[in-house]
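Sequence design from tokenized structure. All designs in this work follow the same two-part layout: the structure record, then the generated sequence. An example of the structure record is given first.
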């Protein structure tokens, strides 16, 4: 019995002599990975909290009408936060009558967004701003992008508005008709009226 135990002890010693360094290295690597992962998670949480604080401060500035201050803070944001922030600052610029600045912000939001819905919102708003600026070709060009199906009615309505501003009633009526067929009148009460006003136009 004692001899058998001695053999087991000797086998363990032999095993530790041969593989002990690798076991120790594995433990060190494992602990290092664990602490590294925890540090990474902590850094990610801290960065997210910092972005949230900046976003809240920016939202306050937008609400207060401080477009200049809000625009300066955009560089501190990242990801979808910056796109949403640009949309908000652009809306504030529109309300302040600064359409050129709004167009610039919406262009950046359109380019920066990897999210199709946010990109579509930026695109349709940009087209409306171009329309307000009298830049009809740029408005139509902005609308000629691949956007989600749910935005097609809105795109066609804006397209109709641009055609109408160009004096092309026939194309405007056709665009409005497409928008109505796509269910746009449910979300835009003015659409049906626009279409009916052009019903007798040739």
């Amino acid at each position: 019995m004692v001899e058998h135990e001695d053999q087991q002890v000797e086998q363990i010693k032999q095993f530790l002599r041969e593989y002990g360094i690798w076991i120790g290295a594995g433990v060190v690597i494992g602990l290092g990975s664990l602490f590294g992962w925890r540090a990474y998670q902590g850094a990610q949480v801290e960065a997210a909290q910092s972005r949230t604080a900046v976003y809240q401060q920016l939202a306050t500035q937008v609400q207060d009408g401080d477009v200049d201050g809000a625009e300066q803070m955009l560089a501190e944001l990242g990801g979808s936060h910056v796109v949403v922030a640009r949309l908000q600052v652009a809306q504030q610029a529109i309300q302040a009558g600064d359409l050129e600045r709004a167009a610039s912000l919406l262009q950046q939001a359109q380019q920066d967004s990897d999210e199709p819905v946010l990109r579509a919102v930026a695109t349709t708003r940009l087209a409306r701003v171009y329309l307000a600026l009298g830049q009809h070709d740029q408005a139509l060009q902005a609308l000629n992008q691949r956007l989600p199906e749910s935005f097609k009615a809105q795109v066609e309505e804006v397209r109709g508005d641009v055609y109408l501003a160009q004096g092309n009633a026939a194309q405007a009526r056709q665009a409005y008709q497409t928008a109505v067929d796509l269910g746009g009148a449910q979300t835009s009460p003015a659409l049906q009226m626009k279409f009916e006003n052009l019903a007798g136009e040739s």
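The chain has two domains: 2-135, 148-202. We note this feature because it recurs in several other targets discussed in the main text.
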